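Justification of computing resources. Each target in the renewal requires a structure prediction run like the one illustrated here; the chain below, 396 residues long, is used simply to show the kind of job we budget for.
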Amino acid sequence: FTYQGQLKDGGSPANGLHDLRFRLYDAAVGGTQVGPTLCVDNVSVTDGLFTVSLDFGAQFAGEERFLEIDVRADTGLDCSNPAGFVLLTPRQALTAAPNALFALNADRLDGLDSSAFLQSIPVPLTLSGTSARHIIRGENASTTPGASGVLGLATGATGTTYGVYGLSVSTFGTGVFGNAISSSGGTYGVYGLSASTGGRGVYGNATASSGITYGGRFESASTSGTGVLGWATNNSGTNYGVVGRSNSTAGYDFFADGAGVNYGSGSSIRWKRNIEVIDRPLEKLFRLRGVYFDWDAEHGGHHDVGMIAEEVGAVLPEIVNYEENGTDAHGMDYSKLTPLLVEAVKELHVKVEEKDAQIAALRAEKDKEIAELKVRLERLDAAVQRLVGQNLSTPK
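Resulting structure tokens:
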């Protein structure tokens, strides 16, 4: 018989060549092995799926049978070498067919002639009709992780292929619609996964050259929901939670608008350690320079204003992102200049207050000197007046 299985490695669909060993038992646990051990080398596993042909001989006479499987990633060793094999549990139950029925009239089914049914499946297969619900519906009640109602599999190793392709010509239609109706748990309306080093888990492309279009649009109706969540889970390398890019010189790499408050990045003191005030902020600020420049063609080619990341990194390395070599700067977070500016303004304010105090002290000193001079002048003027009066009253 042909056995089709699904193989996962660490919770994700396995890929590549694997060695498989199969044994048949008369019980789900323990029991006695019946028939030979079958060994299959270099089985191709694609997106977790594999198919093998098994022949245990005359071991199926209506009794219960359970299939036990060992697996290992292909190492070049012959399948008969037991090194590296992992036993999969539990054993898989094989349902027996107690009777093979013979159709006396194979040319008729459900009262219809055989011409009403497909003699073979054409490629591509097209089903057309009018239905308020579905043309095709796949339903799977399994609770096994990875179970699918509908599976689309494009096995071509090259070319632009699609496991599932949806198309709608309605002015309000949806090419592909996913709906996770469970009110609890970590569910996904649509889930995309790519194992390629240049792949995309989910890709959206609005090809119209005009109009208000969206390559991807996401909405959340929850009072504590998130419309879009970008999360780069690798804890090393230059990765991005969300990347926005616009080729238009009048466009926006990122645009946010609405009645909501800009939340910004996490900044609670609850999550921070080793807090220190930025030292010598004015000195650091004066070591930076703002520049005009022109982008190269790869980055838009337009005229712009900003800073040089390498120069900023020499002063504030905390706000500059570097390539994996740790030398070439990739970009910088301009918003993180704000703490430096705050501390620089505070330091400048202290200097201004010190100057104001010095000026006030000098002014008070000068005011005192002026007052003293004024008193002396008044006394001198009085003395002069007395001398003049004496001279006028003296007879000649």
